[in-house]
Amino acid sequence: MTTDAAPPEKTLAAGPAQPTTEQFIEVQESAEFGELRRTYRSFAFPLTIAFIAWYLLYVLLSNYAGGFMGTKLFGNINVALVLGLAQFATTFLIAWFYSRHAAGKLDPRAEAIKSRMEAGV
Predict the structure, then answer these.
(1) What does the alpha-carbon distance between residue 54 and residue 88 come to, in Å, rounded to a whole number?
(2) Higher pLDDT, 58 or 14
(3) What tens digit of pLDDT does each residue of 48-70 get?
(4) Rounded to whole angstroms, how far apart are CA atoms 119 and 116?
(5) Residues 86, 87, 89, CA angle at the centre, nearest 5°?
(6) How many helices, marked H, and strands, marked E, lie in the chain?
(7) d(CA 51, CA 90)
(8) Which residues contact 112 (CB under 8 A, 6 or more apart)?
């Protein structure tokens, strides 16, 4: 079944104008953006390193300290199971902690920069 109707016209979504490359570079080199990066890095890098160290400790203990990891704590629950479940708990804890940090410190600063860029175009 064919129709003789013309295809619908494409409309562009009306949104904020895009900043120029020069404006992006100017913002990237600003002290405010540098402070935003420092705030992010001072939070994310130490937590990432700590979590990787914690994960590697678990792997190394599993490989080289089988007797310790097999120590029964109560019933059929041993150290390896408790530490393995703690890996999940710390993952969710870090995600929650980062979410709070981002909402309180990163997002307002990033939104201010974004608003100024969109308004300046």
Answers:
(1) 12
(2) 58
(3) 999 999 999 999 999 999 999 99
(4) 5
(5) 60
(6) 5, 2
(7) 8
(8) 32
